[in-house]
Amino acid sequence: MRGRQKSLTGKSSTAKSSAAKSFTKKISTKNSAQTEVLLVGNPNAGKSTLFNALTGGNAKVGNWHGVTVGELSRTAVFGGKELFFTDLPGIYSPDAMSMEEKRSAEYIAAHGEAFLLFVSECAQLPRTLPLVERLGKGRKCALVLTKRRQFERAGGFLDLPALSRYLGMEVLSSEGMKKRDLKASVFRLAEEGKGGGEFKITELPAKIYRPQSEELSRADRLLTDGRFALPLFLGLLLLLFWVTFAPNLLGDVLKTAIENFFTVTLAEKAQTISSPVLRGFVADGILGGVGAVLCFLPQIFLLFFGLILMEESGFLARLALLTDGMLSKIGLSGRAVFSLLMGFGCTAAAILTTRGLDDKKVQKRVILCLPYLPCSAKLPVFLTLASAFFENPFVAAVLLYALGVGFSLVAALLLKREAPPFVLELPPLQIPRPAFVAKSLYFQLKQFIIKLGTVILAFFLFSWLLSSFSWKWEYCAVEESMLAHLCGGLKFLFAPVGMNDWKIAYAALSGLIAKENVAGALQLFYGGFPYSAQSAFAFAVFLLCCSPCVSAIAATAKELGWGRALLFALVQTVTALLMSYLTYFLLTGGWGYALVALPPIIALFLLKDHEKIHRKRKLLSQKLHR
Q: How far is CA 509 from CA 489, 497, 506, in A?
């Protein structure tokens, strides 16, 4: 990367003006008198952790590449002074390759007066210095080093004062400094505005810096060996699912306790309310809807807990490395694993992380694959439906999750193109930090509860109101209500799967607002799922394949534009309906017809002359950045 000669620091004023315009909205909250500090460095260098320490913010952090995918700004006050900090996505070179790097490079070029606070792991200092050399010339800047203890334990050596003199700029080590001292140092450096001479960085002398051992540890060798690591990953997932969903285990016990509290204890008290309207409002509108979703909180907690442990330990990065070869066969790269695994938590958040990919076409393919992965919002619906076709929710959950992964891979295969080269920043293996895990879980669960207490609760109350009153505002049966008249024409949507019922269609379409709404609507109208196992499974397939929610659509629009986002949502929803019809057809005796029709289709596919795409794969040692 260093060998390329094009430099963004030499852009024309027109280019700079254009870049500045694209960030006008982002810096609108900055006071004109404030000094702006840009946190710049390679991916996974610790920029977001430093940003949180300096500003008291809650930027997402993690032990893997591509956590920060957009600039995040926040004002911090210390000693009566104010600074405006901006955390930028990771960048290796001004000659940006990935979309997140381009975004950072444009932001840095557009903010020529900002103070650059370079952030680097001690172990990665030689690879960060070319970036400092390119961007730091003529700019006010300083360097902060992270993970020093880990570097020295691995045999590395660093003389901080000598390094500062050699570089001609202030160098700090964030590790070991109290937060107050760290803030005082950064505020002082930004106010003084030193650094940024016309320096030329050559190889660091051994008396100043000696790198740590590059030899892979035994644990690293095991976790980069597919014969060991892939079975381990699948085993850990099955264990996580078993603890979360299996009867009489932790997830199920906690879910049942919360469910009983709402449906038995509180519901019995609600029945003592004399007014039928108020009783229906409390029992059905609030307790029935909110309780039907809130009872799944322990299982969502356990799933997030497992994902966070894999992220923070560094296992996720090694999984990306191992799966690159397989994903390249369907036109993706190993980096897609980060977004795909995040899709099990939240589709909208996973879509935003696709900015870390190197190619816009690959990003589009990953975004099209993500809706098929079961996010945490679909979990309450699947478990509500599961009891209709499986006694054991563990088996049902594994089946639906596996089906979602299968649909996602098929979507990628249908959109297959040549995958880009794969280079990965491999973070160190580490024991997950309890404080970090607790903070991440708290953030995820807080978001779920806020969503439940606002959007979902508002939807339940709106649904109860329209389904309980006629156009004359008289309390009535649901089939005589305003909602029945408004949605009666929707019943044909699921008639082919044995559910000629507008309430099912309303519940399904309510999932476009938030998937949790589906579970609440089923509880509100039926108290469960009233149809056959075949219909339940076909309905689950529809929810698995349809467009996730408005948040995911908005995230897609942010990355690809509203036209494509709405088109994708429409195509996914129509395809989901067709898939649910096909599923019901097969489950109700259509297997015979399928077996007759399948051989000619397979033969036609095999006989077709496909263009073969050969992709050169790098050796493992070439793909690793340590």
A: 13, 16, 5
Tell me if residue 158 falls in helix, strand or coil.
strand
DSSP string, 475-527: B--GGGSHHHHHHGGGGGGGGGGT---HHHHHHHHHTTT-THHHHHHHHHHTS
For residue range 66-101, list pLDDT tens digits in order.
Answer: 455 567 888 888 888 889 999 988 888 887 667 778
The CA distance from 328 to 322, in Å, is 11
Residues in the chain: 626
In the structure, what pLDDT confidence band is assigned to residue 606 with cuts at 50, 70 and 90? Answer: low
Cβ(306)–Cβ(236) below 8 Å = yes
SS (H, E, C) 174-233: CCCCCHHHHHHHHHHHHHHCCCCCCCCCCCCCCCCEECCCCCCCHHHHHHCCHHHHHHHH
Q: Tell me the C-alpha distance between 576 and 540, whole Å.
A: 10
Look at phi and psi of residue 46 and say left if phi exceeds 0, alpha if psi is from -120 to 50, else beta.
Answer: left
Residue 200: name the closest of 137, 262, 126, 147 by CA: 137
SS3 category, 74: strand
C-alpha–C-alpha distance, residues 354 and 100, integer Å = 9
| Amino acid in position 446 | K
Cβ contacts of 568 within 8 Å, gap of 6 or more: 367, 368, 547, 556, 560
Q: What is the DSSP letter of 65?
A: T
What residue segments make up the domains of the chain, in order of their start? 8-210, 226-606
Q: What is the pLDDT of residue 273?
A: 85
Residue 215 CA to residue 129 CA, distance in Å, equals 23
- Separation of alpha carbons 348 and 127, rounded Å: 33
Say if CB 428 and CB 220 are below 8 A apart.
no
pLDDT(28) > 60: no
Contact call for residues 464 and 284 (beta carbons, < 8 A): yes
Higher pLDDT, 605 or 502: 502
Contact 41, 138 (CB under 8 A): no
Question: Is the distance from CB of 126 to CB of 92 less than 8 angstroms?
Answer: no
The mean pLDDT value of the chain amounts to 80
Q: Which residue has the higher pLDDT, 261 or 326?
A: 261
Angle at 193 between CA 191 and CA 197, to 5 degrees: 170
Question: Within 13 Å and on the Cβ side, how many CA atoms surround 326?
Answer: 10
CATH code at 8-210: 3.40.50.300
